[in-house]
Design brief:
The structure is a single chain. This protein is an alpha+beta fold. Helix content is 25%, strand content 27%. The strands form three sheets. A six-stranded mixed beta sheet has the order 3-4-2-1-14-13. Strands 5-6-7-8-12-9 form a six-stranded mixed beta sheet. The chain starts with a strand and ends with a strand. The structure holds one DNA strand of 18 nucleotides.
DNA sequence: ATGGCCTCGGTTCGAGGA
C-alpha cells in the first residue's frame, strides 16, 4: 500500500497535476492540504472517475483538507472534537485497518503573534486527539503539512531561519511531544542523515537553489514500523509548470 | 537593493502563505 501527502495550494489549480501524479505513481491513499475550496466545489467526480473514493472538508479561500483512496474510507472524523475550530484543517478516516489522520497545521505567521498562539493551541488540541485515538486504534498514520521543520537537518540554512516561525523551539517541542506518543518520522527512519526538503519558496529561485525546508511529514505509530519499505520526497511535480510550492511525500507499506 | 511569487475574492489590490 502506497500512502502520500501533498499540500497542493488549491485543488482547482492543481487538479490535473494531482490526477496525473496519483496514476503515474500508483498511489493508494493521498492526503491533501490547502484545497482552498468549498465542499460543493470539490472535484469528487474527477477523482471518482480516476478510481478514488474521496472525503473532504473545505472552506472558502483558505485551508481545506481531503483524503483520496482506492480503498473504502470509514469512520471519518472532520476536524478535532477536542478543539473547536472554524478553520478546516483536519480529517481522519480508516483505510485497510490503518487510522489515517490528515492535518494542515497552522503556519503561525510570526512568533508571538495571535496566529502563532493559535498554532500552539491547535497543536495542544492535536495531542489530546491523538491520545484519545490511540486508545481505539493501533496502526496509526499522522500525515500532512506540519509547518514545522523538526531539526536543523530539515532546514537549508539554519542561520537564515534562526528564531523564525516553522523552526522555533516552541513548535519543535510539540513535534517532540507527538513523537513521545510513539509516533515516528518515517522519512527519518529510512533516511537518517539526508538533507531533503518538501517546500521551497516561490520567490528568489529557492527551488533551483534548493533552499527549502522539510515541513511535510508522515508519522507512523510504532506498530507499523516493521511494515515500511520506503519513504521519500518526490521533487518531480515541483518542476512541472505552475507547481505547488510543496512536493509530495510518499511511503510504501508491505 | 532586505524585495522578488502564487492564489483567492472580487475587481486590478490586499491578505495569507512559509
Amino acid at each position: 500500500m502506497k500512502i502520500a501527502t501533498w499540500n497542493v495550494n488549491s485543488i482547482k489549480v492543481r487538479l490535473n497535476q494531482v490526477i496525473k501524479w496519483i496514476k503515474k505513481n500508483n498511489i493508494d491513499v493521498l492526503c491533501l492540504q490547502e484545497t482552498k475550496t468549498l465542499n460543493i466545489n470539490f472535484p469528487s467526480k474527477e477523482f471518482f472517475d480516476a478510481g478514488y473514493y474521496v472525503k473532504f472538508s473545505g472552506q472558502k479561500t483558505y485551508n481545506g483538507v481531503a483524503i483520496l483512496s482506492k480503498h473504502e474510507i470509514s469512520d471519518v472524523v472532520i476536524n478535532n472534537p477536542y478543539f473547536p475550530d472554524d478553520q478546516q484543517r483536519m480529517i481522519t478516516g480508516t483505510i485497510n485497518g490503518f487510522r489515517i489522520i490528515c492535518v494542515y497545521i497552522p503556519n503561525g505567521q510570526l512568533i508571538g503573534s495571535e496566529k502563532f498562539k493559535y498554532k500552539l493551541h491547535w497543536l495542544e488540541g492535536l495531542l489530546t486527539f491523538l491520545e484519545k485515538e490511540k486508545k481505539k486504534y493501533t496502526q496509526m498514520i499522522l500525515t500532512g503539512d506540519f509547518n514545522i521543520a523538526p531539526t536543523e537537518k530539515d532546514v537549508h540554512d539554519p542561520e537564515v531561519w534562526k528564531d523564525q516561525v516553522l523552526v522555533s523551539d516552541a513548535e519543535r517541542k510539540y513535534f517532540e511531544k507527538i513523537c513521545l506518543l510513539k509516533f515516528q518520522d518515517a522519512f527519518r527512519i529510512l533516511n537518517p542523515k539526508e538533507k531533503k526538503y518538501t517546500w521551497w519558496d516561490y520567490r528568489q529561485l529557492a527551488f533551483q537553489k534548493n533552499k527549502g525546508l522539510r515541513i511535510d511529514h508522515i508519522l507512523i505509530s510504532s506498530e507499523i514500523e516493521k511494515k515500511i519499505l520506503n519513504c521519500d520526497i518526490d521533487k518531480a511535480p515541483r518542476k512541472w509548470e505552475q507547481p505547488s510550492d510543496h512536493a509530495p511525500v510518499t511511503m510504501t507499506l508491505i
